[in-house]
Specification:
single chain, 195 residues, alpha/beta, Rossmann fold, five-stranded mixed sheet, 5 strands, 11% strand, elongated, hydrolase activity, SSR_resolvase, EC 6.5.1.-, DNA invertase
């Protein structure tokens, strides 16, 4: 059985599913087997998509007008198609001509999978390179230090004067992990960093 899924990005009257509906009906989808969402592709809680994935059965074919109507990104699209594959449901995109019931469609699906993996690797590579450049320029990512300035100086003076780390935490109102992280960050000479 052919199952159709349509999505438009907004609930405004300006957008309509007519184009998608006509294409899906022309492809042989029964009007009773059409599901639709009026929501951004970035939303995780698309009720129509959830209903579609619950409705499909082994041997069915999920048909969309265009790939971007189904997934919000390449990796999300591949995740949905993998879910369909696990349910023994084929996938067809009319605009791109992708059809996992054919050998060439299956090949295209695997090419998309390789591209998504490559895209993830490139993003990770750029993030690591960006962090390294920032570190070389003296910028460290993450939250700003919790203990700084006069408070840090007073804590160091207290520790150098023999006050225990537990007493410092109580007297200065800092958490144990915050104190330890700060001492490690500044390279405090005490190697035993337990309160």
């Amino acid at each position: 059985m052919l199952i159709g899924y349509m999505r438009i990005s907004s609930e405004s009257d300006r957008q309509s599913t007519d184009l998608q509906r006509d294409a899906l009906l022309a492809a042989g989808v029964d009007v009773r087997h059409l599901f639709e969402d009026r929501a951004s592709g970035a939303k995780d809680d698309r009720h129509g998509l959830t209903q579609t994935l619950e409705f499909v059965r082994p041997g069915d074919v999920l048909v969309v007008w265009k790939l971007d109507r189904l997934g919000r990104s390449l990796s999300h699209l591949l995740s949905i198609i993998n879910t369909l594959k696990e349910k023994q449901v084929a996938f067809r995109s009319l605009t791109e001509g992708m059809d996992t019931t054919t050998p060439s469609g299956e090949l295209l699906f695997h090419v998309f999978g390789a591209l998504a993996q490559y895209e993830r690797a490139l993003i990770q590579e750029r993030v690591v390179a960006g962090l390294e450049v920032a570190r070389k320029r003296g910028r460290i990512g993450g939250r700003p230090p919790a203990i700084t300035g006069e408070k840090l100086e007073a804590i160091i003076t207290a520790l150098n004067g023999g006050m225990s780390k537990a007493a410092v935490c109580r007297n200065f109102g800092v958490k144990r992990t915050t104190l330890i992280d700060t001492l490690v960050r500044i390279g405090w000479p005490d190697s035993n960093l337990t309160p």
